[in-house]
Amino acid sequence: MGSLPDSDQTAALDRGPGKPRILLLGLNHQTAPVALRECLAFSPEETEAALDALSHRPCVREALLLSTCNRVEVLVTCDDPARTIAELESFISEFKHLPIEDFRSALYRHVDNDAVRHLFRVASSLDSMVVGEPQILGQIKAAYGAATHLRTSGVILNRLLHRTFFVAKRIRTETGIGDHAVSISYAAIELARKIFGSLEGRRVLLIGAGEMAELAVEHLIRHRAGEILVANRTFAHGVALAQRFGGQAIRFEEIDQHLTKVDIIISSTGASGFVVVPAQVSAVLRHRRNRPLFFIDIAVPRDIDPRINRLPNVYVYDIDDLKGVVEENIQDRQQEALKAERIIDEAVLRFSRWRQSLEVVPTIVALHRKLELIAEAEIRKTLQGGEEALDEAALQRMASAMINKFLHDPTRFLKSDGYHGNRQELLDLIRRLFDLDAR
Amino acid sequence: MQILTLATIAAYLLSTAGYLAFLFLQRRALRQAALALLGLGFVAHTVLLAAGVIESGHLPVHNLHGTLLVAGWAVTGVFLIIYGRYRLQVLGVYAASLVLALLIAASLCPGAPAADKTIFNSFWLISHIVAVFLGDAALALACGIGILYLLQENTIKTKHHGFFFRRLPSLDRLDAAGYACIATGFALLTIGLVTGFVYARAVWGRFWSADPKEIWSVITWLIYAALLHQRLTVGWRGRRSAVMAIVGFAMVLFTFFGVNFMLKGHHGVFTGQ
Description:
Helices cover 54% and strands 13% of the residues of chain A. By secondary structure, chain A is an alpha/beta fold. Chain B is globular, with a radius of gyration of 19 Å. Chain B has helices at 2-25, 28-56, 64-86, 91-108, 123-158, 163-167, 171-204, 212-234, 239-262. The interface between A and B is medium-sized, with 22 and 20 residues.
C-alpha cells in the first residue's frame, strides 16, 4: 500500500476522510540499552498525558502508546509519515526532556505494512526478548485500553488492534512458540537454581509489585521457597499482595533489617532512583555469614545499584542481564517462529487488502462490480426462459429481483446489531448517501 | 602385574575420554560409561595394589612409583565416595584425568624394590600413610571443586553464560561438596600428623625433628585449619573458600613432591632418596 504513489486525482478525492497512513516509531531492547529505555519509559499516567497531547497534534489522527520495560512504541495514523516522524521525535524529546540526538539512532520507523507486521510480531512475542513470552499481549491490550479510553484510536487502529489480538491468539494456539514458556521471570528462577541449588526454604523479599515480579514469586512458591516478604511503599498494597502469596508485609523502611534474613530479592518498583545501594548490603554480609544473596531487578529504571554485584557472594541481575540467560532458548524456538512468521505474512496481506478497500476509488470500483454481477446474473436468468417469454411481466420480475439483491446486504446490516457506533448517525449517513431527503 | 597395570591405565584413559566427551556433548550414556570405566579401573587398581602388598609384605610407598600409585588409588576412591554423596558429574573430568596423570607418571618411574626395611610395618606408620594419602586425595578433590566453583561463579558474576553455566552444578552444591572434602581432608590430615609424630617418637625417639616435610605439613595443616576456622566463625564461603582450597592444595603438592625433590629429610626413606 505504501508503495502506491499519490496521484493528483486520488489526492483530490482524499480531502475529507483522506487516505490514512499507519506509522510506528519506537525502540526496543535490541536497539536501545536499558539506560536509555528507562529514560524514555512512560508510566501509565504519563501515557495518558502523552496520548492526550499527541491527539492534539495536527498531523496525528489516531494514536496508541505502548511502553513496557523492553520497548517504547508510538503507533499513529497520519497523512504524511515523513513529517509525522519528525513531529513524533520532537514530541518525545519535549515530553521526556531529552535531546533528539540521544535516542534518534535507537529508533526504528515503520510505515504501513511494515508497521502492521511489526505490531503483529510484537504482539505474537516474536520480537520479545524471550520469544514466545505471553506478557506482551496483555501489555498491548492495556495500551489499547488506554487509547480507547481517551478516544485516540479510530477506525484504522481499532481494526488493526483487533486483528493483532486475533493473530497473536492464533499463533499461540497453532505454533509451539509458547511451549516450555520461559520468560524473564522464569529465567530468573533458573539462575536462582544455579546459585542456590534447591530453592526449598529460601526466603524471598518482593519489593514493589508488577506482573513479571509477581510471576517470579509464583514460580518460587512452586519451587517451595520459604517465607515470602512483601515491601511496598503503600503498606496496604503490600498487605494485599502478601496475603495472595501467603506471606508477610513489611514496611519499606524495614527492608534493611530484613536483608540479613532473605536469600532472594525481587525488585520491581516505579522508583526513579536506586532502592538498594551497596552500603546497605555490605553492612549485612557479616551478619548473613556470607550466605549468597540474589537480587533480581526487574524494574526500569533500575532499583538495585549494579555495583552491589561486586560484593562477595552477592549477585545482581537486571532485566538486560536476564536477557543473556534466556537467549539460548530462543534458538529452540526458531523453528516455531518461522511458522508464526507465515501466519503473520498472511495476516499482513489481509489487513493491507482491508486498508485498500477503505480508499474511495477501489470502493467505487467494488460497488460497481458487485452491482454488475447481480445485474448480469439476473439478466441471464431472465433470458433462460427463451425470447418468447420476454414480456413486461418478466422484466418487472427481473427488476424487482435486482433491487432485492442490491439492497439485501445493506438491509441486513441496518437491521443487525453487528456494527459499532451510533445508529442515528448511521441512518443519517445512509439517507444522505442515497439522497433520500432531497425533496 | 604388567597386564593389570596396563588394564588399570586403559580403564582410566577411557574414563577420562568419556568424561571429556560428556563435558562437550552432555550425553547421559557417556557419563554413565565414564563412571563405570572409572569404577572398573578402581577395581583393577585395588587388585594391583593388593597384589603388591601381598608380594612385598608392606604398603608400596617406598619409592615414587609406589607413592603415585597409592595416591591415584586414593583419589579414585575418595572421588567415588564424593560422587555417591553429591553427584558432581563434571568433577569426573578432573578426577579421572588427575588419576590418569598419576598412573602414567607412576608407570614412568622405576619401581625399584626397597631394601628390606622393617620400619614399614608398624600400626602407626600404616595409619599415618593411609590417613595422609586419603586426606591428600580429599584435598585434591576440594581443589578441583574449588576450580569448578570459581568457573561457575565467574559465569554468574560476569553474566556471560557460555560453555560452563549449564554444565556445572549450582554454587551451593559445589560449596557444600568442597566443604565436605576439606573437612574430611583436614580430619585425615590431622590423624596423619598425629600418627606420624607418634611413629617418629617410636623410631627416632622424638616427636618433632624439624624435618622439612614435617614443617611443611604443619604449614599446610595450619592453612586448612584457618580456612575451616573462618568458615565456622564468620562464614567464609564461596569464592574465598574456593581460592583457599586451591592454595591449600598447592601447599599439599609442595609438601608431597617439592620437599622430596628440593629438600632432604628423613622422609627420603619413603621415596627412595
